[in-house]
Amino acid sequence: MSDIYAGYAPIYDAIGQGAFAEALARRILAALPARPERVLDLACGTGAAALVFAASGAATVGVDRSEAMLAIARARAGDLPVTWLAADIRRLPVDETLAPASFDLITCLYDSLNYLTGEGDLALAIGDAARLLRSGGRLIFDLNTEHEFATWGEGLDQVVYDANGLLVYHRLAYDAPARLARGRVVWFTREDGRWRRGEERHVERAWSDAEVLDALAGAELRLAARRAPSWEPAPPEAPRIVYEAVRDP
Ligand SMILES: C[S@@+](CC[C@H](N)C(=O)[O-])C[C@H]1O[C@@H](n2cnc3c(N)ncnc32)[C@H](O)[C@@H]1O
To answer: What CATH class has 9-146+206-246?
Structure first.
């Protein structure tokens, strides 16, 4: 599968796209009953959340399928205790790094699970995460909901960054019958007095709450909470929901 972040990775960081996961990781750590010793961040991107967990003292593993995103994560990590792994979160390898029942906390943040678009993909990723959680461990992930994608309608243009010789805009659209949201990410960088243009196309699937509950039940995880990113209970029409699930003893 091609890496849709190959060209966008350095832009992603430069415009602060990691800020959401970084803030959510801090909120998660503050809310947990005990400090996690081993953390796995799925679809870790450039390391926004993984680096927060590692800085808290947790032995952390970050997995992403994009070598370009991982290269930036590695460079940012310095001496922090993080192991980076290039893998698809729908079929994680079984090895010493990803030993069964070995993690206290597994996260997958900033709508990364929406990027799984195939029938059954969500169940595969959640099933793999459940296998890696120790008894009492937690899986926390957020999803863009259909309510968010509906605002994209037949076309929504957003300038997401315009400063310091860098212009980034998103052209978003939602195909409701297919439940697929499409985003063209376009950027212009100013180099040697000229503008250079880059573009990538992202597709996200609207997973329904029922599909999430099915995937959790299939993996024998118990839903503990649905929240907004602010950590308040998620309202029914929430554009984004943070799910917390527990592997009971
Ligand atoms: C929106 S970014 C979020 C990155 C990071 N969690 C953050 O908050 O900054 C989505 C990430 O999901 C990764 N991704 C998408 N599908 C994946 C898959 N099947 N396996 C592993 N990584 C995947 C992409 O490479 C990208 O780094």
So the answer is: alpha beta
The whole-number pLDDT of residue 1 equals 52
> Which of the four CATH numbers 2.20.25, 1.25.40, 1.10.10, 3.30.420 does domain 147-205 have?
2.20.25
pLDDT at 88: 98
Please tell me if the CB atom of residue 73 comes closer than 6 angstroms to any atom of ligand 1: no
According to the model, what pLDDT value does residue 26 have?
A: 98
Ligand 1 nearest atom to the CA of residue 5, by list position:
25
- Which ligand 1 atom lies nearest to the CA of residue 17? 9
Residue 240 near ligand 1, beta carbon < 6 Å: no
- Provide block-wise average pLDDT over 10 residues at a time, the chain (249 residues): 80 92 98 97 98 97 97 95 96 95 98 98 98 98 97 91 93 96 94 91 97 98 97 95 97
How far is 51 from 101, CA to CA, in rounded Å? 22
For ligand 1, the distance from its centroid to the CA atom of residue 16, given in whole angstroms, is: 15
User: Which residue is closest in CA terms to ligand 1's atom 15?
Assistant: 115
Question: Rounded distance, CA 147 to CA 238, Å?
Answer: 7
Distance between CA atoms of residues 28 and 24, nearest Å: 6
Looking at the chain, the domain(s) classified CATH 3.40.50.150 span 9-146+206-246
Structure pTM?
0.96
**Distance between CA atoms of residues 116 and 5, nearest Å:** 15
Residues 84, 76: Cα–Cα separation, whole Å: 12
